Amino acid sequence: MNKCMNHICIKKFLPLIIFISALLYINTLSNTFVYDDAYIVTENYFIKTFKNLPKLFQKDYLPLSGELSYRPVVTLTYFIDYALWGLNPFGYHLTNIILHTINVFLFYTLIKNTAKNPTLSLLATLLFLSHPILTETVNAVCYREDILASLFFLLAFLYFRKIYLSQEINIRFMLYYMLSCASYCFALFSKEMAITLPILLILFGLFYPPKPAPGNFRNKPKILFYYPGLVQSKRWVLLYAGYAFITGFYLLIRFVLLKNTFKIIEVYPSNVFTMTKVVASYLKLLFIPVQLNADYYIPYTGGISLSFILSSLFLITACIIVVRLHGKYKHVTFFSLWFFITLLPVLGIIPIGNIMAERYLYLPIIGFCIAASNVVSDYTHNRTGIITAVIGIILFSMQIGVIQRNGAWRNDTALWSSTLKREPGSARACSNLGNVYFHDKHYEDAMKMYKKALTFQYTYPFIHFNLGATYEKIGLINEAIEEYKASISNNNDNTLAYNNLGTLYDKQGLYDLAIDAYRQSLKSSPYSPLTHNNLGNTYEHIGDSEKALAEYMEALKIDNAYADAHNNVGAVYLKKGIFDTAIDELKKATQLKPEHLDAHYNLGIAYATKGLYEEAIHELDLAIKYNPNDYSAYRDIGILYFKYKKDVNESLYYFSEALRLVPNPAEGKKVKGIIDMINAGHDFN
């Protein structure tokens, strides 16, 4: 009766659990894009048209998507989000909340079906959804891969459990088997951490052997009575073969067919001594989730040190406790192994850019929550009152921590200010706070942060790039060039550094150096529309309009919504006298970017050349609207009003404004002469 009542209570509590899970992150909906969201979403032209969908399955994916490894499932969700929400961060955060809430439900389903203990199921689920360590993954749109990988990982595990406990092979068995394998495949192509699933499936078979059906061993050899796992050994070999095949297929795609040869990450130095401290730090954060951070600085340890010894003792103690609890709590052992096994891929076995990150715990924490809750629920069995109240206070405090931590992710200023405060040795935090100042046009403050970041023990080449961009903004061109050169590294993506060098060389009239820099940039990333467009500009400056046009068209092949490239193509055709094609391209530029003043100006000239004077004046007026200091637009409208509209007063107004904005004395003399001729009643050429 009590068992039945407990199940009824859990069913009643489940909707409340789901509601709490979503409610805890409701304040993220007003957050902006932060961290790498700009690189993955706002500045990522790849996701902005479904025409690029086929490239999810081509070699072009890696240089185009912004991902460092093959994760097409994640990128597909960004396609969908952009189609629904454009660049409104509300929708992207809503998607993260929905996916996370689904994971809470799947977590509950996992523990309910595995432990068959209502109290444990409720406690473990509440601990999972309340844990502040998950806030980084849910808040940052760019870390959605951890949520998706966990979602499909849990689905694959749940369907495997169904087929593993099945006594016969039938249609339902095959359906669940295919769903499990497909989910595993989706998990792998969301994030590499999912490759640990087959290990956990094998361990699940060892820890939770299926109960034989009645009469299953009748007329069977005696050995099978003592070792029921041998009864269907061939069946289980075939069962695991599906996961082995998918693993091999993924490794072939990941490391051979679609290996990343375009983008390189700066790898944080690590070894067994350093990673021991990292694992101990992870466990500390799971038990005491305070002082959370977007970037952790773990000093490199070259040998045995006091911190290594203390971390080792902590881990050894944890392992001893788990082993001693094994006889009484098999869930504790299995789900402790879940934690450590799913954490393995981010422990430096494969080089990673961040030695430690909270998002790496999104999948492993499932094991921790179940193992810890198993011990607590058993200890509190038949105990109420103070202990229950203490557990409730702890969970409520964690939920308050989640809501507060969400606030730290509301924008880049809040995020990196709090990160640097908690981790003063973080070069990344210092540099990213400099980026905030840079975007706010506080260039002196930005330079101070970049220079400070470069003094830290462990720094990054891209900080030199950021400092170079700041020098360029304040006109220190030579200093900018030196910093761009300093940022170029074999362990860094040099695309923008070479591109910006090319831009500076072009401005200095050093066209050969500019072309060489752009070509170096395209070696790093051949799919950069910005670099192709800039290279086209340089070719245009040296009078090679054919090569210029080829580069502009190459930029449009990569990103057909690139307004600057459409404008430049239109300008080339305008010079060639191919006015209809020029007008078509310039219209596209103004449609894609209504405030594109150059496109409006060029379109006005194209219309005027064709005798469409009303349209020409309209476009030139728009050029002035978006740039009230556009001397050329005022001058040309003045010409149109005088010669074709025969409106002397309007003409004089625009020429007077042009005179106010003349870029040099020679132009000023010409405009003043025109005004004098008009006032004298004469025409002018």
Secondary structure blueprint with pairings:
Blueprint: H1 2-24, H2 37-42, H3 61-65, H4 72-85, H5 89-115, H6 118-130, H7 135-139, H8 144-164, H9 171-188, H10 197-207, H11 222-226, H12 233-257, H13 272-287, H14 306-325, H15 330-343, H16 365-379, H17 386-408, H18 412-422, H19 427-439, H20 443-453, H21 461-473, H22 477-487, H23 495-507, H24 511-524, H25 529-541, H26 545-558, H27 563-576, H28 579-592, H29 597-609, H30 613-626, H31 631-643, H32 648-660, H33 665-679
For this entry, give a set of tags.
685 residues; mainly alpha
Number of strands: 0
pLDDT < 50 stretches: 216-231
**Terminus-to-terminus distance:** 102 Å
Helix content: 55-70%
Radius of gyration: 32 Å
The rough form would be described as elongated
* Quaternary structure classification: single chain
The biggest beta sheet, please?
A: none
**% residues in beta strands:** under 5%
- Mean residue pLDDT: 86
Tally of contiguous helical segments: 33
Structural class: mainly alpha
Q: What does this protein look like?
A:
The chain has about 675 residues and is mainly α. Helix content is about 70%, strand content about 0%. The chain contains 33 helices and no strands. The chain has helices at about 1-25, 35-40, 60-65, 70-85, 90-115, 120-130, 135-140, 145-165, 170-190, 195-205, 220-225, 235-255, 270-285, 305-325, 330-345, 365-380, 385-410, 410-420, 425-440, 445-455, 460-475, 475-485, 495-505, 510-525, 530-540, 545-560, 565-575, 580-590, 595-610, 615-625, 630-645, 650-660, 665-680. Helix 18 runs antiparallel to helix 19 and helix 26 (about 545-560) packs antiparallel against helix 27. The radius of gyration is 32 Å and the shape is elongated. The model is unreliable at about 215-230 (pLDDT under 50).
